[in-house]
Amino acid sequence: MSVASVSSSAGGVRFASMRNKFTVAAITVVLAVGFSILEPRFYSMSNIENLFRQTSFLLILTLAQMFPIITRGFDLSTGNLLSVVSVVTALAMNNAAGWTDSVSAVILFGIFAGLAAGMIVGAFNGLCIAYGRISNFVVTVGMMSVCVGIASSISNGFPVLGLPDRFAEWFATANWFGIPPPVVLAALLAIGAHILLRYTLFGRTLYILGSNRIAAYVAGLPDRRVHFLAYLLCSAGTAVVAILLTARTGSGEPMLGSSQLTLQSIVAAVVGGVSLNGGRGGVFECVIGALFMTTLSIGMNLIRIETNTQLLVLGVIILAAILIDRQRTATY
Amino acid sequence: MTGTADTLVPARKASGRRFSVFETLTSLPVVILILFVLLSLYDARIYRLDNILNILRNASYLLVVSLGQMLVLLLGGFDLSMGAVVALSSVATALSMVGLLAVYPDAPGLVMALGILAGLGVSGLLGLINGVSVGVYRLSPFMVTLATMTIAEGLALYMTSGSSIYGLPQEFTNSLGKFRVWNVPLVVFVALGLLLCLHVFLERLRVGRYFYAVGSSETAARMAGINVRGYLITAYTACALFAGMAGVLLTARVGSGEATLGGPLLTLQSITAAVIGGVSLAGGVGRAYRVALGVLLLALVTNGMNILRIDSKLQLIVVGLFLIGAVFIERMRQERARR
User: Fold this and answer.
1) H or E element at residue B110
2) pLDDT digits over A101-160, tens only?
3) A288, A313 Cβ separation under 8 angstroms
4) Residue B209, SS3?
5) Which residue of chain A has the CA closest to B282?
6) CB pair distance less than 8 Å for A323 and B153
7) What is the pTM of this model?
């Protein structure tokens, strides 16, 4: 179905999905204007930079989450995987500092270890789901619990300090062409994900897998391998966010992520228009969703809405989002 | 998705089948028994009467929640809001009891009844929202219950401002919280009673059997003239009522209204217990007494790890791998049974 909307198809379908895409984008703009009127600090330069920085973290998480969602699944372990990768990266750097004097080597080793840890978790998820055919819900919930346990046991529950200063300089405080590194990375990853989805066999198979799993099998597509890769990519993207956040806080934090963040990334994807029924949605939808969620949360913080009330607002927004999602489905 | 029809009546497939070591060793009662014996051999405190009663009491709260979860799972959905509804029910019950006690200090029975009704009412209302959203508006259960979870959590925190609510009537905590019949906590009987009712309802009544029909194939059920929409609304409302009941029982146990009771962990535990008990996430498969066995296994594992002083961080890893392993074994059992 989604493939139809990608390639040339009935104009009505394309128009309907475009119209809805821009609904959320328009709501985001209205929200931003509203917050700016209520609180002039909202459109200050520092806040806008902050907005983009926050959005880029959520965007990478959402892009990662997008792959399993397109296959009609989701990964509930990503939020807690952040903590594992953060702690592993920090511990690896401290370890490497013992046997090499080169700060660059230390940092690279840490990043490598963090990415590897993320991909091991992703490979486990993917193996169980794609090849073991266990429900993605069960596997990723189990993995969530495992991740909480690993992060707190290898760090003994304390932050891992003593990271090289240059790590933070490279990935948090630096300017790459005048833009903060997370924003640049998020943009690059978004472009990469877009190419992967639209121009490769992997991308096409991913959508077919979500629309009709049996069709993907019958058509002789590498369905299991693609299903496996979806979860592997999800964890790898999450690991990137974890490394960026570790650079920002300057320490490996066993409490860095939470299941709250997982849910936020799923909500961002769905608000933007990635369907939980699989087979629909792409990078553009994730960008809109992430921008919307970040604008809302930063705005609510700035106009000092209480945390408890923010929860209520978030709940109502999720309900509204899925109502929109339903109308979108109905147009097909 | 695959072959729900032939697993619909598990009792039939077991008979007339040759004895298999694998199937016997992985059947729930045998696993529970073996685990209990092994743990007892390792540490004698496991099989002391007060510890067994402790396991049963902890299992009872989880059982009430898991039975509710099972109803929704049977229809192919799930309810992520249960843990938050437990908290909301606790807060609503406690707040209304404290308020009413100030007005009617001489009628604790009335105060208790109205307080429990308030807790169940709020829970039922949230369940109704879930049910209507899923049943009538055909929204994804995941997103709907995620939204109501956030709303319930926000409401509970908002109403209490994050602090505990004390001053519940003594009669309430003494009866539901501490009362024992033949030394067995009252809550165990409450949970067993609910289990029995649900078992009879699902196995013996036509309206109960229809749950399996709707869960196996909504289209087929609709063609057969079953009110699918009504079943979805009923299931989600009943599910939230079970959560509300667990909230009331836990409030009586703790002795105060707490916005931190339940929580997402309880929801996940309830799904875990149901899945270990053989309830399929795809809908249409599952039996109440097996969910109870799943709950018992989970309670035994938790209790055993506590008594063996296993680090709470490692416990999380064990529980996670345990869940994945249990479902994997269940899948292998099903595939062997089909062959």
Assistant:
1) helix B108-135
2) 788 889 999 999 999 999 999 999 999 999 988 888 889 988 998 998 999 889 888 899
3) no
4) helix
5) A135
6) no
7) 0.82
